[in-house]
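Incident log, structure service

09:12 report received: a user says their structure output differs between two submissions of the same chain.
09:20 pulled the input from the user's history:
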Amino acid sequence: MKVEDLFNQTNIVDLSFFNFRNAITAAYFANSDFEILKINENFRKFFPVLGNVSNAYFPDVLEQLGVPGAQIEDWISGIREKGSVLIPQIQITTNGAPRVYSLLSTCTTDDSFSYLNGIQGQFVDRTDEWNLRREREELLEEKIRDREIIEEKSQQLERLAMRLAKYLSPQIYESIFSGKQDEASATARKNLTVFFSDIEQFTDLSDTLEPERLASVINLYLSEMSSIAIECGGTIDKFIGDAILVFFGDPETLGEDEDALHCVEMALRMNQRVTELQSRWKKLGVPRGLKVRMGITTGYCTVGNFGSEQRLEYTVLGSPVNLAARLQGLAPPDAVLVSETTYNLIKDQIECEHFDELTPKGFARPVQIYRVKDFISDQHRKGRRRLSRSGDRVEVNVIDSSDIRAAIEELRRIQIEFEQQFPEQ
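09:34 re-ran on a clean worker, output below:
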């Protein structure tokens, strides 16, 4: 006699199913042929549409619940091949409402009671959990979309700021975007060194050159001059056709002596650069090249925001601006003239010669005018960067100095091309 014959089968099954009786899950017990033998009360509550499922074929029950065929096949193969199966997500509609369940099933074995051998499992209602997960995913997706929108707007602002930067001197751009400049009170009286230059006979040149050639000439000239002005610490006020107005001493100053010295250094470097590019000017249709006149003076000016509510301009006003323009007009081609006020600030370090004593138009008293030669220090002169090199066999001119690294890379490519063309040399 077997041990299982001594006990009532129904009582043993009920006893073994005791833990599922009050479980919060929908529990079931089926035999090895997948026929349901027992379910708990929650099974009926979860799936009232099923009614009595005793002796029903479990895969048919799953199909009646609307479980997809692929998941039913996964359940059958999992039980047969592995002895257990977990389907983490099953979409089932009960009472007209969609819910999410996970199904856990495993084979049971008992050597003493053969009628306990079968399959037991449970449906776990994970609707709230999946809703929370979906909400979290939606929040994450929304956060990602918001981040993408912010990045896109940031890139748009960055591109806008980069374009705007081309219309402003770097110092002015920095003071505006850093919040240092208050539009309501951004005017002041300061001692500035003012620089004014223009190209000799540029009006005649503009009348003879084609518009495209003229644009190439003036854009290259202004680009190179602007780069030098920025490197020397000047604030570019404006371009007036071919004329350039630059001042030193605002919004940052190194002291009136250093401001004047930096301004003169800028003028000398500009002259040097114009000379280096003479061959380029000629290729662009200017047969006699370009010649530039420059004037510099130092004095008290009013600097700040001027204009209307619709448009403001950060500029400088005062008699030193007019005097710098007059000095430029008096200067010979390729010469730099300075007033006496600037000369007194630079004379210990820069060699100058007396040019004239004149009463410029609009001024009541005569002005002593000096012509700048160069810095007295040999070390200073030799330390000045040259962008043109001439050797016995090769002449190199850097046309665009805005990207020296790109020019160096271009020279390397030219070197490689020559080495490939003349490998025997």
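09:41 both user submissions now match this output. Likely a transient worker issue. Closing.
09:42 reviewer note: Residues 187-386 form a domain with the Alpha-Beta Plaits fold (CATH 3.30.70.1230). DSSP finds 15 helices and 15 strands in the chain.
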